[in-house]
Amino acid sequence: MRPRRIKTPRTRGERVIAFIETYCVVPEGTHVGKPLKLAKFQKRFILAVYDNPAKTKMGILSMARKNAKTTTIAGIALAHIAGPEAVQNSQVVSGARSREQASIVFKLAWKMMGPELATRVRVVPSSKILIGLSKNVEYKALAAEGSTSQGLSPRVAILDEVGQIRGADDPFVNAITTAQGAYEDALLFAISTQAPSDADLFSVWIDDARTSQDPRIVCHVYEAPKGCELGDKEAWAAANPAMGEFRSADDLSEQAKKAQRMPSFEATFRNLILNQRVELFAPFVSKSVWDSNGAQPATRQRGMKVYGGLDLSSVQDLTALVLVSEQYDVYPSFWLPAEGIDEKSKADRVPYALWARQGLIELTPGRAIEYRYVAAQLKEVFEFFDVVWIGFDRWNMRYLRPYLIEVGFTDAQLARFKEFGQGFQSMSPALRELETKLLLGSLRHGNNSVLTMCAGNATILQDSTGNRKFAKQKTKGRIDGMVGLAMAIGVMPTAAEVVPEPKLFFA
Questions:
Q1: In 149-158, which positions are buried (b, 16+ CB within 10 angstroms) versus exposed (e)?
Q2: Which of 59, 95, 244, 465 is least enclosed by beta carbons within 10 angstroms?
Q3: CA–CA separation, 379 vs 381, rounded Å?
Q4: Given this structure, which CATH class describes domain 305-491?
Q5: 72-75, long-range: CB within 8 Å, 24+ apart, which pairs?
Q6: CA separation (Å) from 41 to 85, 205, 225, 366?
């Protein structure tokens, strides 16, 4: 007699997968009404979240558009409403940026319920509510532009398209995440295409997951490699895990051809189709060109010859000093007032406090820029480097100069500060040189987060003769680091200005 096979119990993740594939159906399209089969990448994510020995507190899933993100959200939500993850009298919410997107998630979950599951769930279309009858679980679809999310206490929260949030902070997300405090086993999902910049909330979450290595955070990001060609099919597949299944390769090919024909569409293609962090407007320097200059600069050496640009801020804004070596290594420094840093982060929608902790920004005492502190830092720079020139905007230099004298700057050192206008006449040649260096990939800026933020914000104003300058009044964020970099390049001698040393030849 054969030994009786003992059936191994399903894991938590396997039960979620089995529930979705048993009770959920294809919501629309050619195979509408047929049993839903999850793709391999969806199963990997579900197993990683629910079978995590460290007990997952956050699940991040990022991929390009049209890869069934909303279907994934709806399936997970239903598992918590009326499936194996349902908990008595608990609450589940999904959050989206707009009422339309919130409605899509709710309607898709409704359509995905097969005949048997439909008998277990009560639907309230007017309020976008689903109620799991067996455990009295309430699901709500919320929109950031709709009514407040205060008063909620969700055990599970699923955030859709978090990548659309600009900046590192968002009241709607805060209201949902802080409301989960009543549960020790609360679970937060963030499912989205990538945000445009490193300073945006979704990017901050992904980067934190990668650097912290917190085992309670499951982070699956499908993205094309930096600098890949638009027509690279392997890059398409890297960002579109459903390609060849329910994501059309022909459609991806058409989108790529459009981006190749129309350079203005490239940023959109890279962000939405290749799932790369790319700004969706036209900055002074494209992200691909900026990234091509992202090599680490050489180690700072005492006595190294450098050129600099100093962009002095008003009392509460960012002050930037950018130094560039003769080999085009870039060494940026930034200062902000220590008091009010959190308010400044919210106002500018970037993580200044985080960057300060990482050592990328120096905090000066008080609520205003302390020029005495900046002067002392500049003195250290002059003592370490061989500073040839420092370009500066004369507007605030009159306030800094007395402190430079106070900390011991000699007349010879003060003479190395070179007035640099911010208008078309001075800036246009500097921008031309900076643009040339960037296009040739000559710079090594090391992807400094603050400088990269400034590069992404920098836009250009052009006069009738083609001269250019930074459009400070039209920018959407701080550009001080790019102004400093442009001045540093501007005070460097060009190839035409470098006179070769005479050489002696013998016949």
A1: beebebbbbb
A2: 465
A3: 5
A4: alpha beta
A5: 72/42, 72/45, 72/191, 73/105, 73/158, 73/160, 73/189, 73/191, 74/27, 74/105, 74/108, 74/109, 74/112, 75/20, 75/24, 75/36, 75/38, 75/42, 75/112
A6: 20, 20, 18, 50
Cβ(420)–Cβ(483) under 8 Å?
Answer: no
CATH architecture under which domain 12-221 falls: 3-Layer(aba) Sandwich (3.40)
User: Smallest Cα–Cα separation from 152: which of 142, 161, 162, 167?
Assistant: 142
H or E element, residue 238: helix 233-239
The confidence score (pLDDT) of residue 317 equals 81
- Residues of each domain in the chain carrying CATH 3.40.50.300: 12-221
Tell me if 392 sits within 8 A of 417, measured CB to CB: yes
Residues of the chain with CATH 3.30.420.240: 305-491
Q: Residues 38, 75: contact at Cβ < 8 Å?
A: yes
| Token pair for 167 | 């900046």
What does the pLDDT look like over 357-408, one tens digit per residue?
999 999 988 888 788 888 999 999 999 999 999 999 877 788 888 999 999 9
Question: What's the whole-model pTM score?
Answer: 0.67
Q: Are 485 and 309 in contact (CB under 8 A)?
A: yes
pLDDT in tens, 23-75: 999 998 788 999 999 999 999 999 999 999 999 999 999 999 999 999 999 99
Query: Do the beta carbons of residue 163 and residue 195 sit within 8 Å?
Result: yes
**Residue 311 backbone dihedrals phi, psi, to 5 degrees:** -105, 100
Confidence of residue 169 (pLDDT cuts 50, 70, 90): confident
Place of tokens 């008998």: 119
